[in-house]
Amino acid sequence: MSARPLSRPPVRRVLIECTDTYRSNWNTGIQRVVRNVVRESAAVGAEYGVECRPIIRVGNRYRAVRWKARIARREWKWVRRVKQLRLDPELWDRNDLFRVIHRVAVRIRKIFYPRAVVRKLRDISWSLRGEEIVPGEGDTLVMLDAWWNLDVWSGVEQAKQNGVTIGVVMYDLLPVTHPEYFHSSIIVPFTKSLSTALHHADYFVAISHTVCATLQDYVFRAGHLRLRDPARYSFFRLGSALDIASQKKRVREEVREAFGRGRDRNPYLCVGTIEPRKNHVLLLDAFEQVWKTYPDAQLCLVGRVGWLCEGLLARIWQHPRYNQSLFMFNDLSDAEPTFCYRNAKAFLFPSHAEGFGLPVVEALQYGLRVMVSDIPIHREVGRDYCAYFDLEEPGSLAAMIGDLERSGSFPHVRRPDEFVLYDWAESTRDFIS
To answer: Nearest to residue 139, comparing CAs of 152, 122, 158?
Structure first.
């Protein structure tokens, strides 16, 4: 899906950088993309006569890793909880009590989870696994993972000196195009890493046409003459299947209870990190209107707690309908999102901006009626299978929900079962080709 192929030497190996996902226990969109592409890459690479190897950065070296459906090492639940003992800086900067709580939490975490020691032990453990990989002439190193989270660029620079072609996967440019939705702790490292990526990359692969066009516009305006050739840019379609290996795991009773009223009485579902860009405020405003007429309507928010969201969290936790007709789950297991999709009444996605919006495709995969904010990426991904509401007007969404509650009527859209779904093998073929 590019303008024309660049002139490159024959590819010997495709080395897929996946350090961040390998070390992470998260299950957000990027981690799902990385796991599924890597899982399919060996078989798809064989179709093209190319060896595909997932690699991680350990110290100053790359090592090959063996991939499983969930490659992140399993930790005891209490360890994960201790690691997550943190509060949004915006919160504890403004409140003495929260500042004290934050300091205590940090001290507890340092006692029970000494990060520096654990990372060193982990690196030693990883260095004993798999063979060392030295990228060289004929290799393509693809930065598939969250390359802005880790210091991976010294390895990229060395690989480039060895004659390696460098590809960078672009999920979005939101910290630079929509900085109002991010904390400076995200904007600063992302901007710095993006500048480094533009310096080293030979080509870019975006996850949507919208992101691809946004990236080209950004690069052209920034004056990077080396990257002006449109052939350096392409995009691939993401797959839609959730991780299959996790489906036999247990679903907690509180999740079953929230979605156990029967399909027509179950909650409307929204999946996404709790942060301003996801626009949960509009959902709550819309449901405040809905509840006046249809008090039995249910809403469930699913997603880990992000940033700049303390006011939203307080509104949810203090809401009189919380855990009655308003639910929020921030720590679902791998199996539980699938359970929510399968049992939700409909799916809502009110984001201000997205790189792709994978939950929209996942919701269509499960045959849900989908209502999304009217932005370009949602039009690209959802096409005429979704109903679109005004991004700035809660009443627009409230009216759709009201119609569905009153009479079961829904805007005229194509049936979800007609939606052409990419599986991850097809997505990986796009990616490799």
So the answer is: 158
What residues have CB less than 8 Å from 254, skipping those under 6 apart? 329
Residue 74 contacts by C-beta under 8 Å, 6 or more apart in sequence? none
The residue ranges of the chain whose pLDDT is under 50 are: 2-5, 69-94, 124, 128, 244-245
Choose among 37, 433, 424, 35: nearest CA to 240.
Answer: 424
Are the beta carbons of 169 and 122 closer than 8 angstroms?
A: no
Q: What is the distance between the alpha carbons of residues 211 and 209, in angstroms, rounded to a whole number?
A: 6
Q: How many CB atoms lie within 10 A of CB 58?
A: 22
Single-letter amino acid code for the residue at 352: H
pLDDT in tens, 177-214: 999 999 999 999 999 999 999 999 999 999 999 999 99
Q: How many residues does the chain have?
A: 433
pLDDT tens for 32-78 read 899 999 999 999 999 999 999 999 998 888 999 876 534 444 444 44
Task: For the chain, list the domains and their CATH numbers.
Answer: 13-66+129-236 (3.40.50.2000), 244-421 (3.40.50.2000)
Residues near 420 by beta carbon (within 8 Å), at least 6 away in sequence? none
pLDDT at 111: 67
Nearest to 276, CA basis, from 208, 175, 192, 207: 175
String of DSSP letters for 213-252: HHHHHHHHHHT-GGG--GGGEEE-PPP-PPPGGGTTS---
